[in-house]
Amino acid sequence: MEHETKESGANAPTQTNNLTIPAAIVIAGALIAGAVYLGTYKGGGNVAVNYSQPQPVAQQAGNLDQMANITGSDHIRGNPDARVMIVEYSDFECPFCKRFHDTMKQITTEYGDQVAWVYRHFPLDQLHPVKARKEAVAAECANEQGGNDAFWKYTDRFFELTPSNNQTDIDTVLPQIAREIGLDGAKFSSCLTDKKYDDHVESDVQNAVATGGNGTPWSIVVAPNGKKYPLSGAQPYASVKQLIDLALQEK
Amino acid sequence: MVFQALQKVSRKPQYTILALTTSVVVFAFAVWFPNLPLIMEIMGHPGIPFSQKFDLPISLLGSIATNFTLLSASYTIAIALLFGVNLAMTIYFLRRKVSEVRESGVVTGFIGLVSGVLGMGCAACGSLLLTSGLSLVGASGILAFLPLAGGEFGILGVILLLISIRLIAKQIQNPAVCKN
């Protein structure tokens, strides 16, 4: 014999090796399928984050219908009676939320009274411990003093000024923004420390999770007939526009 | 050696087509992953004309530029390309039944893909596939200790796929035979 395989005559190891490929494929497929199932199936564990609040966030089914009703206490940019409402659950330290904030500003400017933007808090404590939640409370403190306008001025300026990913010096930046938008510094500091908005922020977080949010920005586009579309991540302007146009067609 | 093996495989157009198709599918999956429920909703919506059903999924591909960091976009594209090449080379190799060989390259490639999928994206903050899995076992906090918050798995995927391609290329170029 001119050529001979190294393992000729060793059938048992060859058979074992022959099983390696199918086994690897099956295991890989099962792992990927499992991960996809867990990541996308609404009845599966959509909760991706742990929260620092005392009560643990339970694994629950994500259901868009669990979205808390939009009320006068929400932070709404644009016409409160707009045909399409976009509810965004956002984290002040998330770089994608910073990027998406500009997209949403463009959307509300271009669509005028047809589309309104509702801002809710979804600080990811696991990724941005302490700071994101405190910044959310600060936005509520701005709202307390200056109403809806102050809330939006605060969020716009915050995303404009800060680099995201826990690099914000909150002791300096939060009072600075408060001063810039004309708030009373002493009242703002007192509001930040007295924890009165902790429950409000946590309620937003729980609602984000209940609707299936597992990362930020997490948005729900509500059509005129009440139909809800989920939108995960900082999607391009073109995608958001297409989704709004589809929602506007709903009767 | 890898280059010569690639040349050998790409001489047959069907393998080039397979590699490209696989890469496109893996890339699209990675980019669409956070919005699969939305895409399914649009596809199944009876009120949306067929001609419009594909507009949104196509535009969502643009999120590689808005919903990924430079690092995660880089390894997501790399994993898609490498997996396409890896699969085409593996099938070329298996169909030719070069000889009884070690399947370490094939196994490494699949481990690379799995690792890549787990760390794929950073599609929005906290949306990694890995995060969902870890949360089930109460270990999602571990990501806070990883410098790249799970992106390590994407990089590992790229490395494993590169190793796999090298192993398969070696086997294509130098089948495991003993010469007298």
Biggest chain pair interface? A-B, 67 and 58 residues
Number of strands of chain B: 1
Radius of gyration of chain A: 24 Å
Total of DSSP H or I helical runs spanning 4+ residues of chain A: 7
Q: Could you tell me the mean pLDDT of chain A?
A: 82
Reading the helices and strands of chain A in chain order gives EHEEHEHHHHEEH
What is the strand tally of chain A? 6
Provide the domain count of chain B: 1
Please report the distance between the alpha carbons of the first and last residues of chain B: 24 Å
Bin the helical content of chain B. over 70%
User: CATH class of chain A, anyone?
Assistant: Alpha Beta
Strand coverage percent of chain B: under 5%
Envelope shape of chain A = globular
Order of helices and strands of chain B: HHHHHHHHHHE
Q: Largest sheet of chain A, order of strands side by side?
A: 2-4-3-5-6
Give your account of this protein's structure.
The complex is a heterodimer of chains A (251) and B (180). Chain A has 251 residues and is α+β, with helices and mostly antiparallel strands. Chain A has one domain (64-249): Glutaredoxin, CATH 3.40.30. Chain A has helices at residues 11-40, 95-111, 131-161, 170-180, 185-193, 198-210, 237-249, and strands at residues 3-5, 75-77, 84-90, 115-121, 218-222, 228-232. Chain B has 180 residues and is mostly helical. Chain B has one domain. In chain B, helix 7 packs antiparallel against helix 8 (104-119), helix 7 packs parallel to helix 10 and helix 8 (104-119) runs antiparallel to helix 10 (151-173). The interface between A and B is large, with 67 and 58 residues.
Q: Which properties best describe this structure?
A:
heterodimer, A: 251 residues, alpha+beta, Glutaredoxin, five-stranded mixed beta sheet, 7 helices, 6 strands, globular, B: 180 residues, mainly alpha, flat
